[in-house]
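TOKENISED FOLD:
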Amino acid sequence: MHQRSRVSRPRVSWANVAASAASWALSIFTTACLVAVGWFGHATHWSFGLGGHSGGHHDPAAGHGAPPDAEAAGSAATTADGTVQFRSQEALDRTGIEVQSVEQRPMVSELVVNGVVAYDERRIAQLSTRVPGSIWRVEKRLGDHVHRGDVLLVIDSQDVGQLKAEFLNALVVHESRREQLTILEEVKSAVMGRQLREARAALREARNHLVNSEQSLVNLGFDISIADFEQLDDDARAAKIRTLGLPPTFTAALPGDRLTSNLLPLYSPFDGIVVGREAVIGEVIEAAKPIFEVADVSTMLLVLNVSKEDAGKVAIGQRVKFRPDGSSEEYASTITWISTEVNEETRTLQVRAEVQNDAEPLAATRGLRANTYGAGRIEVDRRGTAVVVPRQSVQWDGSRWVVFVPSGEAAFMARPVQPGVQEGDFVEIIDAADGQPLTHVVAAGSHVLKSQILLERMERGEL
């Protein structure tokens, strides 16, 4: 016989059912309450808390009642022509609306950018020698003012002595070849023509060697000329070339027999200040190693970084004002250079301006210093005389820029305008759409009037 199997059924817990039903009921009730509050607030313009504060000015910081925007919404109406009419002067006073006179004043539109002070690359020099040697004497210190041609230091180099000796030898050979040619030309009838040709060729060759020797010394910075040595005897030539390039005041204090012909002075290429020095007496230096750095600080560069969004607004010749960090002084200049590319890392456009500096000496408390950061203002537009209103007076009503002007008692009308240059807290009004001149506008509280207009549009289904 087959035994019928029984299927067990789970028992229903009425307690769980009751708890679930209660939870659903609570959720439905909460939702209904929120919907009711929302409907009531919209119907009353959220002004149902004004009853206890109708007799005086409402203070939002007190934590009671509604904010001024809500008060205005419940106590004003908007007409078809966009005029906001308050029901009473008391309701208007609670909004904090203030009316100001329209001004006429010069307006300047500026870009505020970050910048840094730098040396002018055309007036800064890193100086080194072209031959190796050892430092024999140092004449200038860090921060010293120098003039063009001043000796900064003197090095002792065997290469210099060798080049000087080659110059003197080349001069002697040239003079010898010239004398030989002169003698042969006097007796040219008794000599072969080939001898004359060889003598002329030898003179030309000697002349080339002499010029090359002279040029080798000129390349090192010496002021030397063949003509200055041709009229001297051998002793005078040796004495002259030994002190070549050294100022008389420098050599006067030293006995002539103690000077070597290996001395090579390093000169300042222009007037400026020593801003870098890596030299001590006796130090062995290599050719092309920077030893001195001289900068002309009478003109400094302002390197300004303009965002790529504003790159199209800058142009050469625009006025610039720069204020270094920590300084109360401003330096005026104009843009002299605009980069042809945007920086790959900062994504900014670099522009430069030159500033006349008054830093004398470098340790002075005034003047621009290299690598100083600061803020620059680039003037991109200027109005001689403009009609201006406070920035807070200009509002966007969803489709146009407007200002609010008084229109009767406790009423304000929205007037379309075209804003222009902005400077600080003021905005230029280029044109009013209705063609009527502006005399007074709402400043503080203009957002309340905009909110009233937008609310009326929402209720009419226009937004």
Summary: The domain at 74-106+384-459 is CATH 2.40.420.20 (conserved putative lor/sdh protein from methanococcus maripaludis s2 fold). The two ends are 81 Å apart (CA to CA). The CA atoms of residues 174 and 206 lie 5 Å apart. The chain is about 30% helix and 30% strand.
